[in-house]
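Reminder: ligand-aware prediction takes two inputs, not one.
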Amino acid sequence: MTSLNLFSPIQIRGMALKNRIVVSPMQQFSAVNGKVGHWHMVHLGSRAVGGAGLIITESLAVNKEGRSTHYDAGLWNDGQIAGWRTINKFIHEQGAKTAAQIAHFGSKASRSHPNDGLQYLTPENGGWQTKSSSAVAPFNNMSLPRELSIRDINKIKKDFLTAALRAVSAGFDAIELHAGHGYLFHQFYSNIINHRKDQYGGSFENRIRLLIETARGIRDLIPQTMPLMIRISAVDYIEEENAWKIEDSIVLAGILKQIGVDLITASAGGFVFLDKSRVFPSYQVPFAEKIKTETGILTGAVGAITEAQQANDIIASGKADLAIIAREFLRDPYFPLHAAKTLGEAAPIPFQYKRAF
Ligand SMILES: Cc1cc2nc3c(=O)[nH]c(=O)nc-3n(C[C@H](O)[C@H](O)[C@H](O)COP(=O)(O)O)c2cc1C
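Here is what comes back for the chain with flavin mononucleotide:
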């Protein structure tokens, strides 16, 4: 039996990754009318040159209401496809794969640019009326959302499906639904926000309905060979009886696996500011491990993974299948090249850079 490590290839449906190192989705707030440009090409392209196996895009809004800011990238119209085609082509030429993360921010939409503090904007201040499962603000400095009607919910499901088709057309290798971090899907599956009385609220089955229906719809629509991944918040990090817990995530992951979802990224939180004492190296890895062990679905570990040996241990110990890295990739686009050297693996050095490594 050969042991796995960070540089072991992995096959997920028709997508073959050359290693287990993944660029985590990171919003750049640099799009114009939802379109990506030179910044995105250089930013994502550099990480492909740096040797990442898979690059997941920042959250791409499925409609304008679902954006977090005016500067979000999106897939809500056909004009937004071409920019991604060029970026995907370049990334593929470097031997890496790409996944489109599609998202709706629900009540966490309508904020200012990070340079203006990511403040929640009312319609009077240049924002727009947000909507959510219920008229409940996830944080108290936010404007109150309106409750989505069944008609609104059906429209959002449709927007996710259309965005997924645009991602296929843009040449992505996989699709990831963003169902964590206190955004729309999470606003439905967590009791903390969802106070609905209809078929989308109340019981566990009702609260996960929107996510299940959307995932099933996308699975049926995209090519059989294309992986569907989902990022969830494995826990709410709220000490209340009715908060979302790891046990809930395990049941959810089992159902998602049954309907053809290929991989779960186990992130966490979204409705509370996390105390610094709870964030330490690999702090969310136990969530990925539990979900993987209990359900057998592939998982991605994310959160405070910064070192080659640390990332390698996560894979070699079988706790997760992918090491998903965000901020360390901002500090070092060549993390995989450096990690290969540290771990004594053959580094995937582009020939143009061979004289330097
Ligand atoms: C600048 C920045 C933007 C982010 N944008 C997204 C996003 O669009 N979608 C998402 O799922 N997570 C997003 N995240 C969260 C990261 O993907 C990751 O889960 C988190 O930063 C923890 O990983 P790290 O410790 O490696 O940074 C973002 C993080 C950063 C630092």
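The chain has eleven helices and twelve strands. The chain has one domain: 10-356. We will return to this case in the review session.
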